[in-house]
Amino acid sequence: EAGVAQSPRYKIIEKRQSVAFWCNPISGHATLYWYQQILGQGPKLLIQFQNNGVVDDSQLPKDRFSAERLKGVDSTLKIQPAKLEDSAVYLCASSRAGGTGRADTQYFGPGTRLTVL
Amino acid sequence: AQSVAQPEDQVNVAEGNPLTVKCTYSVSGNPYLFWYVQYPNRGLQFLLKYITGDNLVKGSYGFEAEFNKSQTSFHLKKPSALVSDSALYFCAVRDGGATNKLIFGTGTLLAVQP
């Protein structure tokens, strides 16, 4: 089966500009995640969707970050305006279910490397 | 709060030798533990997970991990390292709440010398 798709792979912008990332999960996966991975650190969850509803966005900087998953399939993550500290790799992942109960495996896309100058 | 620690920033091993990448965890309740590998400019690839049952978990590419409840460890192992195993390895634990959120360690860079 096809994996998680993300675009673009690389993006360079200046601070205060806006940027958007796109993710298409594995077909049939109900849960979609956006993680931020800063250089030298492990990924950190920004937001989790189950179908088209938000399950957890407690670590999403809502003053500048937004995300949506219309129709419960693909998703976009937006940053507006960007700051220097937003430079990171943005990873999208999906899992078959993802709610309570056993731990579903999350499958990751290749990521989008964002550089904010 | 759930957490994992990877005490080594880098592990060096000669090709053909056994390798171990260490991970310790701190959880309330049952631990659900994962290992992922990340190659340069690539996303994370799933290697294996422990949910319950046998303490020795076998995964992809010949890797295995040993769950040790008394030592709260989940070390990744491989009997014979390959140069192509050189990559960044992440241990993760499922958050104990209602979500499936993963809490990742800081990663260990594995360097296998020919």
Topology at a glance:
The complex is a heterodimer of chains A (117) and B (114).
Chain A: E1 5-7, E2 10-13, E3 19-24, E4 31-37, E5 44-50, E6 53-56, E7 65-68, E8 75-79, E9 88-95, E10 107-108, E11 112-116
Parallel strand pairs in A: 2-11
Antiparallel strand pairs in A: 1-3, 3-8, 4-5, 4-9, 5-6, 7-8, 9-10, 9-11
Chain B: E1 3-5, E2 10-14, E3 19-21, E4 24-26, E5 33-38, E6 44-50, E7 56-58, E8 64-68, E9 73-78, E10 87-94, E11 102-104, E12 108-113
Report on the architecture of this protein.
- The complex is a heterodimer of chains A (117) and B (114).
- Chain A has 117 residues and is mainly β.
- Chain A has strands at residues 5-7, 10-13, 19-24, 31-37, 44-50, 53-56, 65-68, 75-79, 88-95, 107-108, 112-116.
- Chain A is globular, with a radius of gyration of 14 Å.
- Chain B has 114 residues and is mostly beta strands.
- Helices cover 0% and strands 51% of the residues of chain B.
- Chain B has strands at residues 3-5, 10-14, 19-21, 24-26, 33-38, 44-50, 56-58, 64-68, 73-78, 87-94, 102-104, 108-113.
- In chain B, the strands form three sheets. In chain B, strands 2, 5, 6, 10, 11 and 12 form a six-stranded mixed beta sheet that branches. In chain B, strands 3-9-8-7 form a four-stranded antiparallel beta sheet, with no helix packed on it.
- In chain B, a hairpin with a 5-residue loop joins strand 5 and strand 6 (44-50).
- The interface between A and B is medium-sized, with 31 and 24 residues.
Task: Produce a short descriptive summary.
The complex is a heterodimer of chains A (117) and B (114). Chain A has 117 residues and is mainly beta.
Q: What is the averaged pLDDT score of chain A? A: 92
Amount of beta strand of chain A = over 45%
In what range is the share of β-strand residues of chain B?
A: over 45%
Q: How many distinct beta strands of chain B?
A: 12
| Global Rg of chain A | 14 Å
Q: How many strand elements of chain A? A: 11
